[in-house]
Amino acid sequence: MEHRPFFSIVVACYNPRKYLSKLLLSIVNQHLPEEIEVILSDDHSTEPYDDVVEKFKKYIHIKRTITDYNFAPGNTRQKGTEIATGKWLTFADQDDEFYPDTLVKVMEHIQNNDEPYYAVADFNECKMDGTVFREFRATLGWCHAKFYNLDNMWNKFGMAFKKDFKSHEDIYICSLSNCIMNFLNNREPLHIPVVVYCWYQNPESLTHGKYQSDAGTHTFLEFLFSDYIESTAMVYLDQYAKNNIDKGYACNSAIEVICYCYFYMMGFMFHDPLGYIRENFNHAKKLLIQTKKTFEITNQDIWNVLAADDAKAYMEIYKAALVGSGPYIPSMTLMEWLNYLHEDIIPVGGAQTNLIISNNSSQS
Fold first, then answer.
1. What would the pLDDT profile of 270-300 be if each residue is shown by its tens digit?
2. CA atoms within 13 A on the CB side of 40
């Protein structure tokens, strides 16, 4: 391309033959041939798909690269970013699609608002038949419908996917983005009120297909729960330790994740009272202890943050967490759970009638 495109769209690919045409056609249907470069980053696919790519080369500019070794989507996306030349970086999954003529609206919003760093549009989660299952509006989680200025944000702040991260690699990037915006005088990203992207509930997706067999009967979130904590709270704790974000923001962010952990684990225990993964209890315990030591707070302080304004934060997190946990009946209250995390007791899910909780614990 003779001029710098506006968008670099990085696509992590692994045996994408079955779905890639749909994504590439949706990019053609943006009608921005001079403003888009598509980067197909391959994770050592075992099936050829060159013929699929060739059909689209006359309509859109396509670049290709390959990972150093097969592992996970985060590594694959990172490899793609290393050859990106567009002004704005965004990501797409090989089995999803953009809605027609939406990227031109994104471009116009960014230009009209002189946004220098980060823009967030809207997207839908859809069933495989195209039916909308959930609507995501101005969400700061996930990588879908997010746009990062390659020079001012991605490269300037050394953004990169966490190496050899099995899951939640997109949440990790979103957590980093949140920290950068806090560093930039607590700026808000530009919200673009356009539904840009369709994320499909595909059981054959790149991540789920790679690890779901290992997860067995456990949900993907439960099986890789430590990755969830690493991609959220640990990012804020690390950035605070580096003096990149302020104390209040870091502390509140870690407390939010602790509350998410509570809801998720209550769901895990409810849905599988005997077989839930006990090790996740230790992951949550480690996070709680580190948060309390770092910010010199107690369990009561955590409770007070979540209970403020008629438990506004608590209820908002509860509603959001239901997406990952499913409906459940909690086995213990939040305070009981916080206190339990400092005991060498791992509870069995289901109704509890004999809990003895010390509210005067020296740890709380």
1. 999 999 999 999 999 999 999 999 999 999 9
2. 27
Nearest to 18 by CA among 206, 208, 212: 206
Dihedral sign from CA coordinates of 175, 176, 178, 183: positive
Cα distance between residue 207 and residue 198, in whole Å: 17
How much of the chain is in helix, strand and coil states, percent to nearest 5? 45, 15, 40
Query: If you search the block for the tokens 């967490």, which residue do you land on?
Result: 321
C-alpha torsion 158→161→162→168, nearest 10: 140
- Nearest Cα to Cα of residue 153 among 179, 171, 132: 179
CA-to-CA separations, 308 to 83, 299, 316, in angstroms, rounded: 47, 14, 12
Query: What token pair was written down for 38?
Result: 């598509």
CB contact burial 78-97 (16+ within 10 A = b; e otherwise): bbbbeebebbbbbbbbbbbb
Q: How far apart are the first and last CA of the chain?
A: 60
**CB within 8 Å of 188: residues ≥ 6 apart:** 181
The backbone region for 309, taken as left when phi is positive above 0, alpha when psi lies in -120 to 50, beta otherwise, is left
> Mean pLDDT in runs of 10 for the chain (364 residues)?
90 95 98 97 96 97 97 94 98 96 98 98 94 91 93 98 92 97 95 97 67 72 94 98 97 98 96 94 96 95 95 96 91 93 58 32 28
What's the CA gap between 72 and 202, in Å, rounded? 17
**C-beta of residue 68 within 8 angstroms of C-beta of residue 39:** no
Both tokens assigned to 151: 């020079």
Q: What's the pLDDT tens digit per position in 139-178? A: 888 889 999 999 999 999 999 999 999 889 999 999 999 9
Residues whose CB falls within 8 Å of the CB of residue 220, separated by 6 or more in sequence, listed in order: 167, 207, 208, 211, 212
- In sequence order, the β-bridge partners of residue 97 are 198
Give the C-alpha separation, 176 to 47, whole Å: 34
Neighbours of 59 (CB within 10 A): 13
